Prior knowledge:
Elements: H1 10-25, E1 32-38, H2 39-45, H3 47-52, E2 64-68, H4 78-82, E3 93-102, H5 105-108, H6 117-126, E4 131-140, E5 145-151, E6 161-163, H7 168-175
Antiparallel strand pairs: 1-2, 1-3, 3-4, 4-5, 5-6
Amino acid sequence: MSNTPMAASPLTRAVLEIDEYASGLGWDQPARLFALVDTARLRAQEPSLAAQLGLEEGPQTTGLTPIEQDEVPTDRPLDEFLGTIAWPDAVAGCALTVERLMLPPAAEAQVPEGLNEAKLAKWVAAHPERQEVRMTVAVLRDGTRESALRLREKDTPTEVLTGPDLVPGLAEALMATFAD
Length: 180
């Protein structure tokens, strides 16, 4: 967590930690899913796993530890995959990092009508104003959410945008994984 502010909330620190991890892997990566677990609870209930993750005893007893899950399948839509997930009670929240192309609002008004999903993706990919973005979105069971956005053209830790409502649709899809 070298670039995460200590004054930030535990969820913001977790999102920035995941963003930093994904940044270290480079661009053009598949989506990655993480369980978020309470660090103090993990140390107490699973000391060997905590040690394996490098969570030595220390002054920080609060916080969230992201644990990467198995690969996100690429052969099905992301929202469909998220609809199959159910988390055990020990998981306090979850996070997803995914890369997408986005257009500025002015360019979105230029989208031709009647394009199917594949043609729309092709149109966006060819648009001269498209930007590649990595989105990291996290939610907790209580509905708290946080996001980090990193543009490929401004790929530095100081240029990462954070906020709870940057990617509301993805946050809602992640919240649905906690529905009873």
